[in-house]
Amino acid sequence: MQKTNKIRVGTAAVLAVVLGVSSLIGFSSSANAAPVTINFWSRGAQADFIASVGAEFNKINPNIQVKVTTIPDAEFVQKLSTASQSGSAPDITSVDLILVPYFAKNGVFEDLTSYTNGLSFKSKLSPAHMALGLYNKKQYALPFTAEASVLFWNKDLFKKAGLDPNKGPKTFAEIEAAAKAITALGGDYKGFYFSGACGGCNIFTFAPLMWASGGDILTAAGQPTFTDKNVAKALSFYNRLWSKGYVAKSAKTDNGASFAAPFAAGKTGMVGAGAFFVGSLKANPEINYGVTPLPGATGGKGSFAGGDNIAILKGTKNPVEAKIFLDWALNAGQKFIATKAILPIRSDIAASDYVPQDPRYKVMADAMAYGKTPYSVAYTPLIADGQSPWVKMLQSAIFDGKIAAAQAAAQKQALAIVKKQG
Amino acid sequence: MASANISVTRNRKTSFAKKRARAGFYFVIPASIFVLVFFLYPFLNVIWMSFQDWPLLGERSWIGFENYRTAFQDIEFINSVKFTLLYTVIVTPLLFFTALGMALLIKGTSRTTKFFRTIFFLPVVIGFGPASYLWYWFVDSRVGPAPQFLRILGFGDQEEQWLGIMPLALFVVIVMVVWKFAAFQMILLMAAIQGISKEILEAAEIDGAKGFTLLRTITLPLIKRTISLVLILSVAGSLLAFDQFYIITGGNPNGSTLTTVFNIYRQSFLQFQLGYGAALSVLVAIALMLISLIQLRVLRGDDHE
């Protein structure tokens, strides 16, 4: 009796499996269960390598297929916000770390606190990324890719201008002197370049100059301090570079379209850029360059500790699979991105897989450690908007020279925004 | 007998008329549904949103007319309205007279006029986005052909970005819009001119009208309806300008080329205030309706004379 029961149960189970599989066969060519597809979003800045990350994961995990979608940087906030409200959000997303507080505050991401506490390598994770992923003492996002800003200098141009090609500038005065000498070469040669109408570019390459000078535009609690006198030092430094003609005129209207590209053309002496730029410069092997920390007015060093965090979206239908991908992204995935010239977010993997590739990578990896990232739930309105207080301050201080007035106007506008956004 | 017969025909007539009316009603249903779903519903929704503090993400709350009160004290909004009006006032006549000139040049049916008609019309078929990017590149001080050309002709080094200088940045956009849209208006005007009957023109010519007098006293009055259509389209389009400024100037230098719609986009998606953006949209919609209404009145009023 018992035996027959067992047989019956067994037959039923087999039948169920057969039925289940046959119903799935329609969707998959193999006899295995159909792979679960999870949607993964990333932003334009990562377009060069992110598809290969998805492909690598899919190769190793045939049961889970990650579908990568790249959203243009300028539309990322709107797209993810509206998608999360209309139920069409991805399962998991890579997100510019600086935007995480805004999404975390608004309950878009899954709480990963207990998962994080269980990670054996938690102490090796980039502190800047971890800090930005934290909201109300809960971890909503984990590090994914790192990006630090440093100063690039063209060694050949330094030599041509009679400067020591092996010594990167260490103060504002040294940058200015070098920029003057290189501009004096005449023709198309210019000492320095930056994208003057781009908020994000300048938080990446200009803000470190003011941080290293002891100034800041936001307190740790996100309150605006645009009138800081050390911010003025950095503004007047850029204003001098501009008004003395050491910077190409296109800087004023550059909304980030060129960013560091003029440096890659070999006629620009110095530019602030990130680890990604080393990859771009590989296409121009004739450019002989060095990297050094972005300095303060009289020395010191500053960097924007940037890159992306990774977060699981609240309400995902595939939480298990999303977590498997997250786990991979923090382990094998980090070794994989290191092969794509992307700075890993784990200090152990950065040391073993990234830094040995190129001596200049060490400057980047170090920069991640002393780098800083502003924490604000109002990053987009304060910084990224083309008419934000940040961009308006840069425009009128650097290009019109009205530094104090620009700072005061920006402070007023920023206070109103912070009051509204909380 | 006869009267009975008449009444039958009448009945038949009315039932036929009823059927026709009903058929007409059915024919309008799809369009009405379209208007309801894609215009009326969203528009009412926007009005509803405009009375709330409605962030991109997070809690919403009813605040009555607060958004509207803010709008009238918001210097950025007021400046954007001023700029949009300035742009409309400049671009509308410029577009119209260019289009009229082109239409008069190519109204014939010879091979050459057909050729030029096609050439003139080419920019119209390019999307607005690509066309804007084309011009963004075209006037770039480093790689653009326009400054390069002036350099060769000896007009200085052209190192300064045109888009960084105020009247010049607006000028670039205006030239681009005329280049892009004049031919569209040209086609409408040309069709209207071709529709004027030969007899009228011949009669006028016999009476001694020619050249400019013929144009002013005969041609233009006869295509008044098309002119009003062209002007209303042009004014509405200019007041809603967005793409060309978003791409070419980004609202710069120093926010001086920020149009109202660009500002609405910013307030909604970069400043995260969807409710405020909705209130500004409602204000713009009301202004646009009023302006179009006045335009229709003025142009139709002339028709009766």
Descriptive account of the structure:
The complex is a heterodimer of chains A (422) and B (305). Chain A has 20 helices and twelve strands. Chain A is α/β, with parallel strands linked by helices. Chain A has two domains: 34-147 and 306-370, 3-Layer(aba) Sandwich (D-Maltodextrin-Binding Protein, domain 2), CATH 3.40.190; 148-304 and 376-421, D-Maltodextrin-Binding Protein, domain 2 (3-Layer(aba) Sandwich), CATH 3.40.190. In chain A, strands 1, 2, 3, 6, 7, 8, 9 and 12 form an eight-stranded mixed β-sheet that branches. In chain A, α8 runs parallel beside α11 (229-243). Chain A is globular. The N and C termini of chain A lie far apart (70 Å). In chain A, 51% of the residues are buried. Chain B has two domains: 2-50; 74-304, Orthogonal Bundle (MetI-like fold). Helices cover 77% and strands 1% of the residues of chain B. Chain B has helices spanning 2-50, 66-73, 75-105, 111-125, 128-138, 145-152, 166-194, 198-206, 211-222, 224-239, 243-248, 260-270, 274-304, and strands spanning 52-53, 61-62. In chain B, strands 1-2 form a two-stranded antiparallel sheet. Chain B starts with a helix and ends with a helix. The model of chain B has no long low-confidence stretch (mean pLDDT 89). At the A-B interface, α3, α4, α18, α19 and α20 of A face α12 of B.
